[in-house]
Amino acid sequence: KYETPLRVSVNAQLSFDASVKQLLQLMSGHTLVIVPEDIRASGPELLAYLRDQHVDVLDCTPSQLQLLLATESWQQERVPRLLLVGGESIGPELWERLATDTGREYYNVYGPTECTVDATVGNVQGKTANIGRQIANTRIYLVDENLHQVPLGVRGEICVAGECLARGYLNRPELTAERFVPDAHSGEAGARLYHTGDVARYRADGVIEFSGRLDDQVKVRGHRIELGEIEAVLSTHERVSEAVVLAQEERLAAYVVSEAEPAELREYLQERLPEYMIPTAWVKLDALPLTTNGKVDRKALPALGLAQTAAAETYVAPRTPMEEMLASIWSELLRVERIGIHDNFFAIGGHSLVATQVITRVRSVFNIELPIRRLFEAPTIAGLAVAVVQEQASQVEDDEMAQIIAELEYLSDDDALSQVNH
């Protein structure tokens, strides 16, 4: 419905697969507008360039699109008219905003590089994010671990087949054989399909809903967790713009662009997810770091040493030598630099295994027999210090009583009665 030719952006490095479909627009008679690399990470500069160059079509990632949406004049500008959004999942909040933008058309495009380049496309509309339907010359299968197609509504791995497939990986025959396998569903001799490692489900209307990555499933403290599921729920919070969750050092760490405090976000997740899926380390950022291709650069996220915790909002330092010693033990075992006396052990990364290590260390340092249940009953430095003092007092009394009883064994009945009366 757009008049031709269109002015189409080349908004990706030539080494990035998205540039392939952008360059192919020349074959349809469209004009290519090469976006300078040095302005791709600046929302205002990028928008000004698109306006000055009268760009009709922008191909971008959700992360880069967020930069444009944050500019003051985005709603007033009418370029670009058509946006192809891909490379990353579109979160619920961003989806809702795009779906209600009547001034432009947004399309969610999906496809790994091996499928040159997009395999599905869907118009951004409605309340539920999706990746649409397969495009021409492409077949999409959702399969289980035995390569059997799954029923509607059941999640399975996305496998792509058709004319779009690459031949394989250059000089890597083993990997090619692993990922490009015979397509038993097509009935065509020599047909192959590609294992994407992505997970999705078919809706009743034939639209595909993306669910995450097979390799996003991690094991933390014995629980299998899909990081994408946590990110999706976290992104539904009205004060969260972007969120990434990583598994690091036996902990879940959440990196968020949000005005909300970690304690508020933790409480929000606790109402919607089991406890083992709640991040214990939190990092608030002004923006998520991006790669040169406009995707979230997970490797550039700050280390956990800079993490905030969803603990008490007001830090209270240890007041006594005992509290200082307990805080030092927690800090070493939890790898959290600063611990206040009201911080909850289980809210700052603690779990049953570390709890056992804490109690073992406390028993050694304070020479007491403290049961592990005391840490569960009093999961703060202040509470645990009281428990230690009580146990010390109890054990001193026991020692004195044991000494009296031992002495009484050597006394006559009269002497013993006299000692007891004394």
**Strand adjacency order, main sheet:** 3-4-5-6-7
Rg to the nearest angstrom? 30 Å
Tell me roughly what share of residues is in helical segments: 25-40%
Show unreliable segments: 306-313, 410-422
Principal-axis shape equals elongated
Mean pLDDT: 84
Estimated share of beta-strand residues = 15-25%
Question: How far do the termini sit from each other?
Answer: 105 Å
Secondary-structure element pattern, one letter each? EHEHEHEHEEEEEHEEEEEHEEHEHHHHH
Reported for the largest beta sheet, the result is: 5 strands, mixed
Q: Find the count of extended strands (DSSP E, 2+ residues).
A: 17
Number of helices in the DSSP assignment: 12
